[in-house]
């Protein structure tokens, strides 16, 4: 594979490219075992000061057949060509020339899913971040923008469909059973946005008229026979296009917009200009085979990729250190879209749960890195929760600081000023400083400094002076390579909640800038005096999770209970409830470890029941609140010396206690939510299903619960309810006849539907307890499983390693060994997927010593493999460091 395995790329080493490529003309002669790529590239020297510098192009596993300069065949002494590099020794002095390079590649043997590869008998490409160099020699870097014209030739019978970026120009017959199509993309783009798809696919078509009245042909391509599962994605696409016009004033810019669903894909989807390529998991859905979560994910990812057309494509990144420029911003945009399409509060709670579940452990472990990293060995390993989710939070904070109007002005300026640019984070921050007149230099640390800031808060009310005194202190823990941290600018939204649940107004606030319901922390310590408060209000802090921090708030328990019931901000109610539950669970884990009986505060059990049965609250909110913090969440809160078995015992104990204390109230709510009428994937209907399924999980722990769950499963009329029933049976009544029968019935019904079978694999991989390791290993031999398909691997092994605390962390290390075996088996075939799986071991230092030793062994076992791919080596070495 690649050479220079230990090369480190640094932000400060960035230099502009010495050459530009204004035009790229590519011809593909597609054959599975030997595809010929003819690249005719127009070069221009960009930097006169290096007039004699050679031209060096990137490659990866390429075979050069022929090279021509301005039409003339090049002799062997004029260039050097290796699989990973092409050098033209003496480019013409004029600095403007055409280089024609003919290379041969082998799509059928490409298992990395980068470059041109085969999926389901079709050809497709994946070029971000550095896959284009597996197609032809090129300046494969995001700041080299080129106008592409692409001609595709293929056997008609094998590939009736020929797609690339931009607009279709012409097509026709070639004789001998072959045909061709030509595509032209007028928008200059970096190579990572190139795409080609060829094959035999079904299509769903629609049409969209943009705000200025331009018609756009929309197409979603899927495997034949799956067209009827693409309707929801099409609907989501149309809604995304309209939303971006209405909320950001962004209009689509080509005559066509195509989406292709493929079944072998390393990530969720890819925003190639005019030709998005999707993991089919995020396109295909109907009630029979997809859950409400799948529908919501499809909506979000369709929107995300579409939104990239402006944030990513029209304005791209100067270099890969700027990845968050497109990703953080685009995640922010898709979160806002989902919030507008669904329930804002519910969306925010779900997003914050995801952030805390994925980004916080990353930021608090060995793989921590700034939102804009300064160095990397393998860029593939930086498509992380920090770049995406924390990157989105940073954009959200900019909006919190500026307010909606200035934020929109800043975005408008960003689009106007940088359209067509390969931009940087500095460019992005500057537009907001300019429109608002604010100094964001301290705020910019959010991009540059890794680690989750922690905030410690105490408050005291002085009735005589009518003052509430709030003391706030910030600190940022050290992270790898960054031992000393600087003070951050942290916007903390807050409310002072009066006895009637409404926010009270204070006369003045001193000690920090406080504006529009936001406290701006800039110093290590602030003592803030709110005056004009004769009665003591309850402090509601970090409302809406305005800043991604960990908060230690010394607060009276009565205040927490009060806020959980009465805060006007639903997010804060959820936050207050979750805090109470977390504290109880941490205490429960401690008791369980000390072999003491579990005890739960009666007021908490009562509160849970009240929320479950409160018809004034949105069903989805009640469901989210009642789906308690996961075992991984609790472990993260505990922080160190974790014994996952005691965490599991505590969480189960609390679920049982809530069910016991409230069972008589819960069952009628469960019954009242029974599926009625035809299926609709809308948020309100999904919320009712979510609440009913969450309640089932509680009720299943009571007498008759197994039978209830079995009936729930059998009578389910959609996948959401069916999968929930199966999961409750398999997890709460593992090994029983009912659970086994349900698993068999599911397999019999969906055995030939890979995406549905993924759910079946995941549910089994998540069965708590020591024996699941063996079950997972056995399932890797199941006919529906394939170690080559990323979705299968993630559904079975990925969910086991990252979602099954008791199984994965089996004290004898068998779970870690299983993961290591799978990583080692995959690491050459698909380095990217293998590396991502390996990150499941990133929190190894927070488990108790015996397990820690076993986890370390597994990591060392991987590290000892000869010829380890750069991707995996990078993750394993940083994890062990
Ligand atoms: N850029 C893609 C997205 O965020 C993610 C991706 C990265 C896909 C690398 C494939 C490879 O939408
Ligand atoms: Zn993205």
Automatic annotation (TrEMBL):
Keyword field contains Metal-binding: yes
Domain Peptidase M1 membrane alanine aminopeptidase span(s) in chain numbering: 232-443
Catalysed reactions, semicolon-separated: Release of an N-terminal amino acid, Xaa-|-Yaa- from a peptide, amide or arylamide. Xaa is preferably Ala, but may be most amino acids including Pro (slow action). When a terminal hydrophobic residue is followed by a prolyl residue, the two may be released as an intact Xaa-Pro dipeptide
Aminopeptidase N-like N-terminal domain: residues covered: 94-193
UniProt-listed SUPFAM superfamilies: Leukotriene A4 hydrolase N-terminal domain, Metalloproteases ('zincins'), catalytic domain
Domain spans labelled Peptidase M1 alanyl aminopeptidase C-terminal: 558-881
This protein's name: Aminopeptidase N
